Amino acid sequence: MAINATFHDLKGKSVFITGGGSGIGAFLTEGFLAQGAKVAFVQRSDSTAFCDEMEAKHGNRPLFIQCDITDIPALKAAIQQASEAHGPVTALINNAANDKRHSTEEVTEEFWDWSQAINLKAYFFACQEVMPGMKAAGSGTIVNFTSISYMMGNAGYPAYTTANSGINGMTRSLAREFGPDKIRVNALAPGWVLTDKQKELWVTPEALEDHLGRQCLKDTLGPEDIVGATLFLASDASKMMTGQAMVVDGGVVVTG
């Protein structure tokens, strides 16, 4: 993965990424490692081999903590472990999500609670957990991953789009609440990023052609295309930017 910009203030920064061992998250982990950051990440599946690869490639090994982010005490304990290893987390990247397809008719209360737990609840409690350390450090930055799905009014996963919209509301409120302590909170909304999971489960030639027809830029989005925007939001390059939603989607939706 080529990194086109260097954000000098990210060197040595304590970064915590949810879902940092696969999909977009793995590219985010590598992107921060390449900047010299101290990265800790949580992932449900074993990511030891990925950490070995990153250490060999960058000489900078991420701290992998196996964790299901819907287990809030475990998530908070992981953030504490990362802080003990790397110093207080001053860049939180809430990336982990699950966009499992579903119709309204088939949603049970259990499924609804699970979807909100992974796509929204964990984000809030991760923000809550890092706040004291960021406050003590004098500043911090939080990037909450959302999606353009709710902006498009997409059908096929209403519980997921509900959480996406909630992430933006939460981001704005926390930006206002945390701002006096120089903690910035922004949302990042990718378009249809063709991760291995997306290709395996949902990408068809017809669906991809239709989506590209909506983009201004006619190239497909890969996980690597999301890294630069995340680094920017985590760095001092965006030091007066908070409470905002940045879209990286090739020009499908319009904001402002």
TrEMBL record:
Residues 13-195 form the Ketoreductase domain. Keywords: Oxidoreductase. GO terms for molecular function: oxidoreductase activity. Pfam families: adh_short_C2 (PF13561). InterPro entries: KR_dom (IPR057326), NAD(P)-bd_dom_sf (IPR036291), SDR_fam (IPR002347). Belongs to the short-chain dehydrogenases/reductases (SDR) family. This is NAD(P)-dependent dehydrogenase, short-chain alcohol dehydrogenase family. It comes from Cognatishimia maritima.
